[in-house]
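Raw record, unedited: SDR family NAD(P)-dependent oxidoreductase
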Amino acid sequence: MNKTILITGATSGFGKAIAEKFAAASYNCIITGRRQDRLYAVADDLRKQYGVDVLPLVFDVQDRAAVFAAINSISDAWQNIDILVNNAGLALGRDSFENASLDDWDTMIDSNVKGLLYVSKAVLPYMTDRKHGHIFNMGSVAAKQVYKDGNAYCATKQAVDAISQSMRIDLLQHGIKVTAIHPGAADTEFSMVRFKGDETKAAQIYQGYEPLHAHDIADIVFYCATLPTHVCINDLVVTCTAQANGIYFHK
Ligand code: NDP
Ligand code: 8X3
């Protein structure tokens, strides 16, 4: 029987690449996102290209009621979730503490921290009942080191780091693995979202070096997910070769 993976934020970037990687290995995929057209297009591609079953669920991870309604509505056939990838998230703005927008801070905290908690709490019963599962949380180099004008975004990713450590302790008794992945700069839609559609500012982030690509992270998640049952990679910081940490690049 095919295994099942649930990936949040699969309409682009890491989430979409992770869905493609696991579908290619015959995993059935539950994929989520807010942009319905995009999500359904990804679902169709996965079905056609890899012949797997795909369940697209449209919801905003910030909306607690919508998260629980969607995940509680999953039919019996889809409840054997082996892997949860908490990937949905975003940065909004890169402004000094005094200039940053409170609305941007709210959105980042509600998506990256509260959204991750809601989805995890909703999916968890499907794993604890079977004493089996693997949760991946998408952190960032920003989880390990705060950078200038990163304020609330860095804080949300440090929270993801803390939540991952705490999950690992609490879920030990259920045989559930928890892996936090902390990528550096990767050329997804991340910077276009962060700079609110400013293509020049977004492009500047990736100039003068080769950043990570979404498929690099997908390959790493797949590697971690397919290790023997008794082996768990807990915490992984991954940068392109030109990046040392959240601050230092060789361009
Ligand atoms: P993308 O912008 O390409 O993808 C983000 C995904 O998250 C989209 O599918 C988006 O879907 C989804 N998403 C965002 N907000 C919400 C929400 N409120 N509810 C539901 N889905 C949401 O960026 P990445 O692939 O780069 O980002 C994925 C994760 O990786 C994020 O958590 C990001 O912080 C993290 N990260 C990114 C790095 C980078 O340099 N790219 C480096 C380190 C970490 P939709 O808009 O359809 O809802
Ligand atoms: C995304 C990478 O360096 O912009 O988390 O924080 S960075």
